[in-house]
Design a protein that fits this description.
Layout (H helix, E strand, L loop, with lengths): L44 H4 L15 H7 L18 H16 L3 H11 L10 H10 L3 H14 L4 H10 L2
Length: 171
């Protein structure tokens, strides 16, 4: 016996669309002349009177010793670079060694970069005058070598490292 076919479900009725609300009718404005706004009287001089300036704070008293002690004392510098914070001996040694190896390998660009990085951090290490001078010469900065030796001669004329460097760099 064939099974009776299930009755199809009735389709849901579509929701009726809401009717648009009627726009409110604007009342008609007849051609009326709108009177100008009332004039505002100019402000009186009393309101604009300038305020007196506030009293000046007292000038702080700072002793001359305190002022002088706060001025950084520039260490004498014979290097071709203005000096900044001093690096540790190890950092300087590694950088100078890397620069020498680059110069030996004829990599002048790398030697220059390394030397210019370490230069501002040499401090007062006169024992580096010769190796730095030799590097400067190798990268083509002979004038910097001359100036460095000249400055060092004025600042540390009796330094044994300077004397040795002068003999080797400018025989």
């Amino acid at each position: 016996e064939p099974e009776p076919e299930p009755e199809p479900e009735p389709e849901p009725e579509p929701e009726p669309e809401p009717e648009p609300e009627p726009e409110p009718e604007l009342p008609l404005i007849e051609n009326r002349i709108v009177p100008p706004p009332p004039l505002i009287p100019p402000p009186s001089d009393e309101v604009l009177a300038p305020m007196p300036p506030p009293p000046l704070p007292p000038v702080p008293v700072i002793s001359a010793d305190k002022i002088l002690s706060s001025i950084p004392i520039a260490e004498p510098n014979y290097w071709p670079w203005p000096q900044q914070e001093k690096w540790s001996d190890r950092e300087v040694a590694l950088q100078v060694k890397s620069a020498m190896e680059a110069a030996r390998a004829k990599d002048t660009a790398q030697a220059t970069v390394l030397l210019d990085e370490v230069g501002p951090h040499l401090g007062n290490r006169s024992k580096l005058i010769y190796p730095i001078g030799a590097l400067l010469q190798r990268i083509g900065r002979s004038q910097s070598v001359d100036k460095m030796l000249e400055n060092a001669s004025e600042l540390i004329p009796d330094d044994k490292n300077l004397i040795t460097a002068k003999k080797k760099l400018r025989p």
